[in-house]
Amino acid sequence: MFRSPGAERLQGFGESLAERSEGILDFRRNFLEVEPVDDPISLQFLELLNEHLVTDIADGSPQVAITSRLVGKVEQDQRFPLATDNSQRSVQPTDKARCCHFACSSQYLLKGAYFNKEKQASILYFEAVIIFQEIEMGRLEGKIAVITGGNSGIGLATAKRFVAEGAEIFITGRRQEELDRAVETIGSGVTAVQGDVSSLDDLDRLFATVRAKSGRIDILFANAGLGKLAPLGTIDEALFDLTFDVNVKGTLFTVQKALPLMQAGGSIILTGSTTGSTGTPAFSIYSATKAAIRNFARSWALDLRGTGIRVNVLSPGATETPGLKGLANAGEEDALLERFASQIPLGRIGHPEETAALALFLASDDSSFMTGSEVFADGGAAQV
User: Fold this and answer.
1) Are 187 and 165 in contact (CB under 8 A)?
2) How many Å apart are CA 219 and CA 85, to the nearest integer?
3) How far apart are CA 231 and CA 375, in angstroms?
4) Rg value, the chain, Cα
5) Mind listing the pLDDT tens digit for each residue in 5-21?
6) Packing angle between helix 250-258 and helix 284-303, nearest 10 degrees?
7) N or C: which terminal CB in the chain sees fewer CB atoms within 10 Å?
8) Which stretches of the chain score pLDDT less than 50?
9) Cα of 56 vs its chain's centroid, Å
């Protein structure tokens, strides 16, 4: 199917270490792309690589990974072991149909493939055209994340976004049926642990699972929470205890029990709310718990001084989630959403994916100089 490569050097230069130090041969994140007829063609191409892969460094083993939309997962030829460190990661399946990606380590060149100083590759003369491109790694590639309340709403949207950005995640929720649906929606890269964050035994079980499977936590999103409308004069002890147990006690012990698994560079995200900084009728108990969350972040940022672990609050405004709709009486959900939208400068309520995008920012190194802060995704509701 393929002819042996017979490309000539379009830009003449040697392969000396001096040139490598100038970056001419530094293309670790490049990959080869071909369009095969079917998967056996991919394997034939690997055999071709085996014949024509050469090194410009004295020793070491070629490192090549292959993935295809046709196979749907990374396949590895045993003759080309993948590196175990961060110098090379698995290639993610491409969105292009009928396409295979081959990732080559920076220490190796295919015969006939050479870069000029602008890193433009000459064409290898196969029957299929081969080009060099850059692999765009996910912003959370290789990270381990725990998301409480990850079975619906903002937690579920964030779980999906984190996995799409390369993270391995653990999600919790009180209802197993919802967790099962969430896992099916998210796909690979997720472990679900049923539990209630207000139960210390359930939290111990969660973090024992994380320790056994992954050994560490890079990102903790303490997102689980609940609330119920109750104007002053109708608040009872049961509502007070439930709301503070989940929102305040649950957040406190989620973070405290996760800390032994975290290290420098870790990010803790606490779900706050616009209600923590504004007055909201019939919602004083929930609002008080979110005000507590805001102060947790301020105080914990000081407690964590010197650890390299950041803690910030993500405060959404009215967002279209099951929790928000659950505040309305049956059949009045749309009217409630319209009422919230009328109070927001942008004229609409938020989507969970919009808050998830902000959670990604706080989880990633993009927010590496932030701690003790509060970031809003509220359409301006608490800002004007």
Assistant:
1) no
2) 20
3) 28
4) 26
5) 333 333 333 333 333 33
6) 20
7) C
8) 1-39, 41-42, 50, 52-135
9) 36
Residue 319: helix, strand or coil by DSSP? strand
What DSSP letter does each residue of 192-236 carry, written as one string? EEE--TT-HHHHHHHHHHHHHHTS--SEEEE---------TTS--
Cross-strand pairs, 130: 124
Q: Which of 231, 61, 252, 271 has the alpha carbon at shortest distance from 149?
A: 271
Q: Is 286 a catalytic residue?
A: yes
Cβ distance 218 to 362 under 8 Å?
no
DSSP state at residue 276: G
What distance in Å separates the CA atoms of residue 44 and residue 137, rounded to the nearest whole number? 27
∠ CA(88), CA(92), CA(98), 5° rounding? 130
Q: What is the CATH number of domain 144-377?
A: 3.40.50.720
Query: Which strand (E) or helix (H) includes residue 30?
Result: strand 30-34
Contact 36, 42 (CB under 8 A): yes
Q: Give the containing element (helix H, strand E) for 338.
A: helix 333-342
Matching residue, tokens 């099951």 = 322
Tokens of 30: 């490049």
**Alpha-carbon distance 276 to 249, whole Å?**
16
Measured at the alpha carbon of residue 381, what is the angle toward residues 376 and 384, in degrees to the nearest 5?
100
Q: Are 147 and 172 in contact (CB under 8 A)?
A: yes
End-to-end CA distance of the chain: 65
**Helix and strand numbers, DSSP H then E, in the chain:** 11, 15
User: CA 105 → CA 14, 94, 244, distances in Å?
Assistant: 19, 19, 52
Spatial CA neighbour of 27 closest among 120, 90, 112: 120
Q: pLDDT digit string (tens) for 217-254?
A: 999 999 999 999 999 999 999 999 999 999 999 999 99
